[in-house]
Write a structure and sequence with these properties.
Keywords: Signal. With 527 residues, the chain is α+β, with helices and mostly antiparallel strands. The chain starts with a helix and ends in a 17-residue tail after the last strand.
Length: 527
């Protein structure tokens, strides 16, 4: 397919479908914001891949191929370097990209590797192909108009290799054939070297005066190439499809759609031939599965170009209120007239029989009074519940905690243990027990909500743990009333006993406790 026909096909595929037989609603032709695609993206190439019948491989298919070594229906396409700075590379299906390239080459698959950085890739030959990563430029003087695009030295055309006599193979149709492609533009490409032992045939090179940008040394016309390919495995001779390109910018959007002086480049035609070359060579069947890796990332969306360039749906037409207003007025008048003819309002209040002005009005008033009573009751309940704080509890009873019953019931709360356990709020006895404890150890005369300063001796291994336990007990004794559940008290009661034992061993005391009056002899009501 020629480049003009390919461009026409691309335009038709991206054109939105419209209903020509229907009138356009108001506002349909409003201009939409322009949508553009990135110059450095691969949207157009992915569209060509999808158009060629290749579908992205799912995770299950990746694992199945790696286990059964069935690569004959697989196309592996790698753009850019797949190694990170730390030497890590993605592993789709549980194996690295380099293994995918090697296995697809060996077991009858298809491989395209395009990279302009330093990389060593094995296609199954005795030696791997070396992607040098050294940038190549073509100085403008003496090059000729057809070699330089837009008079820019970093954008140059690749030079197709001359087909040797007797050389056969579909790889020579990529740049040659009935219509050669001398306008495949590159952008600061690298070079392919070490091709003699790799099994790949050079298909395109550089102009005679091309040179490396850093060293200004001329590029070798025999050992350095730009595009290389093969249609059989270098060692086993099994049919496969292999392509190596020293610049993946050849397949980017900016180069596929570039033009000079109104004349398009050959990159789009070359990309289309590349897809056809990769899908063929598998007997009578075309390859249908594809693994596409761009800069180390597996890409699985091949139809993004259609979604990106498809215009958004038209806005909903705005109603013409001037034309709609008379219709709304007529509809309202008809409804009011029907209500008046049927005497709807009078019958709803009085009833169907005017001689018995009974149940309807009475029922209506009963419903209104019932609703008013319910509203008043709910208002009172909300007011009562809103005025009472959830922590408003009764004060602890005077006299401290009650003595245990004669029966020897478990716990320290006496006769109210069952009731408190049912309520799951042990604040009253817990507060009494904690206040009794602090009265025993000599608390300050006017306790506040915060724990006073405490001196802890050096013999205590974990002073902060003891200090935190005292804070918790002080919060229960003199802090803001808050529910104390049975689980909470089960954790506080051992702390109470340990703190009392530590005080008896003179491991802690309140600061200046000797200057305070003895509060242990005061009554519980004063405490």
């Amino acid at each position: 397919m020629t480049t003009p026909r390919l461009l026409l096909t691309l335009a038709v595929a991206l054109a939105p479908a419209t209903a020509w037989g229907q009138p356009l609603p108001p506002g349909f032709g409003a201009p939409h914001p322009a949508r553009t695609i990135s110059r450095l993206g691969t949207h157009v190439f992915r569209w060509l891949v999808d158009r060629g019948g290749l579908k992205p491989m799912t995770d299950s298919e990746l694992v199945l191929v790696t286990r059964q070594q069935q690569y004959s229906d697989t196309v592996v396409i790698v753009f850019g370097s797949w190694n990170s700075n730390a030497g890590w590379q993605p592993q789709p299906g549980g194996q690295p990209i380099s293994t995918w390239v090697s296995n697809a080459s060996q077991f009858g698959g298809a491989v395209l590797v395009a990279n302009d950085t330093f990389q060593s890739v094995s296609f199954g030959g005795r030696q791997p192909v070396q992607f040098s990563g050294q940038r190549v430029i073509t100085p403008q003087p003496g090059v000729g108009e057809w070699l330089v695009l837009n008079r820019n030295e970093i954008e140059q055309f690749a030079v197709p290799a001359v087909r040797p006599p007797g050389a056969a193979g579909p790889e020579w149709e990529l740049l040659g054939g009935d219509r050669p492609l001398p306008r495949v533009v590159t952008e600061l490409p690298g070079t392919l070297s070490n091709l003699k032992g790799s099994g790949l045939t050079p298909l395109a090179g550089f102009p005679w005066n091309a040179q490396f940008r850093n060293t200004r040394a001329l590029v070798s016309g025999t050992s350095d190439a730009f595009i290389a390919g093969a249609s059989r495995h270098p060692q086993t001779g099994r049919p496969c499809r292999l392509i190596a390109v020293a610049d993946h910018a050849v397949y980017l959007n900016g180069q596929l759609l570039a033009a000079e002086g109104g004349v398009a480049t050959d990159n789009l035609e070359f990309a289309d031939r590349t897809v056809k070359f990769l899908t063929g060579g598998n007997g009578d069947e075309k390859r249908t599965k594809c693994l596409l890796v761009v800069d180390g990332v597996v890409v699985r969306d091949y139809g993004e170009l259609n979604q990106l360039l498809r215009p958004p749906p038209p806005p909903l037409p705005k109603p013409d209120w001037e034309k709609l207003q008379p219709k709304l007025v007529d509809l309202g008048n008809q409804l009011i007239d029907k209500f008046q003819e049927n005497d709807f309002l009078n019958r709803a209040v009085v009833g169907k029989n005017p001689d018995e002005p009974r149940s309807q009005l009475r029922t209506l008033l009963g419903l209104l009074l019932t609703a008013a009573c319910l509203w008043a009751a709910m208002s009172l309940v909300r007011r009562v519940l809103g005025a009472r704080e959830p922590t408003d509890l009764n004060a602890a009873p005077p006299g401290g905690r009650p003595p245990p019953p004669p029966g020897g019931a478990a716990g320290v709360f006496g006769r109210r243990s069952k009731e408190l356990a049912t309520r799951d709020n042990l604040l009253e006895p817990a507060r009494a027990a904690c206040r009794d404890f602090f009265d025993t150890v000599g608390r300050p005369p006017e306790p506040g909500p915060r724990l006073p300063k405490v001196v802890i001796t050096d013999v205590v291994r974990k002073p902060e743990t003891l200090r935190q336990a005292l804070r918790d007990l002080w919060a229960v004794a003199f802090g803001r009333p808050a529910p104390v559940t049975a689980v909470r008290w089960a954790a506080l009661e051992p702390l109470l006993a340990r703190a009392l034992a530590a005080h008896r061993e003179k491991k802690w005391r309140f600061v200046e406790a000797e200057a305070w009056p003895d509060v242990s002899t005061r009554s519980r009501g004063e405490a």
